[in-house]
Amino acid sequence: MAKTISAYTCTECGWQTSKWVGRCGECQQWGTVEERGHQGASLARTTRAVAPLAGREARPITRLEGESLQHRSTGIGELDRVLGGGIVPGAAILFSGEPGVGKSTLLLDAAARAAAGGRSSGGDGRPRVPGSDGRSRVLYASGEESTGQVRMRAERMGALHDDLFLVSETDLATVLGHIEAVDPALVIVDSVQTLASGEVDGAAGGPAQVREVAGALIRAAKGRGTPVILVGHVTKDGSVAGPRLLEHLVDVVCHFEGDRQTSLRFLRTLKNRFGPTDEVGCFEMRDRGIVEVPDPSGLFLSRAASPVSGTCATVALEGRRALPVEVQALVAKSATPNPRRVTSGVDPSRVAMILAVLERRVGARLHDQDVYVSTVGGVKLAEPAADLAIALAVLSAITDRPLPHDLAAFGEISLAGEVRPVVGGAQRSSEAARLGYVRTLDAAAETLQQARKHAGL
Question: Residue ranges for the binding site?
Fold first, then answer.
């Protein structure tokens, strides 16, 4: 006879155990192991096979027709770039980011543009988010702010429209009822961690609640052909809060990042079933909201009238986009036995390695000097292509000789003092030439000594 077997399963990764433990033995997450009782018989018993329904039989892949996915523009060019051309009907999009970075502001602007789109076309001639049936209503469900707060922000941004519907709810069933009543062309939920279902135990934001809320909203989106955007909180390490299953359920995962001290914001895709994942959107935070920056080439360059020592321009790749960035260095006599190494926008360990190579391979005297390295505009350089620009900026600061204003450098520096080629060299060179940098230093200079000579230092 069948007997009930009490099993415990991890809600994050599905790991099973016969007794309860506080920490999952597979993904090492705390508090994710829950009891799951199920009916079982002997181990030899298997599930009975069921014949497939008519028209659902397995067929050769060569005889299947590909599904055509039509991207509909949101009216924001940088957002369309990241999404692969726009929003696909029925798509589930997860939008994450640090608190206060501007997620709600950007989505409210996109909601107003979608509500104002209707049957009209975007700048590229494609229909906007509302579908071909003429629906232009957008439902913005906020669980963190009241409708009055959202209205005040929309008024400041100029994002008021009669087809933009606001609701402040934390109950999942009520939100689903609003979706049925409004029949929107786009649904935005801010945020998924604030909604709760009465059919699932636990507080809002728990793994079980987030899984149930996300699953119900995604099923509603797929069944109605209505795209839904879910705003998700992030943890201290920058990952999306809640069960890892949430990222698997959605079609697109976008991360909105930026430093609160600067106005620059970047939108990246971590997952996209309808387009590439290496696109980056650039935005700027202003008093009236977030404004897209189609050409951010001038944001990361200084505006000095004459060349200044300790500065060098490089070209960084953010996704498929080439961005010119200026690296600045300052070298001063240290007043302490342990010289300071201060960095901003660059990897400190990478700078320490470059300084060691300069002292050992080039003969630069840095062991008793304070070295400060920074980028212009608050941009962060994490790729090794900026090594050569950092090295030349430091050498320029030591000799107090400015580099030519039409020089751009990019290349990776090895511990042997070699300059190695980097990914996208041709794209970097073409972008530098477009901005007026006639001379470029890259892996053509085989060693750091040769690069120093070519730069005139």
Answer: 97-104
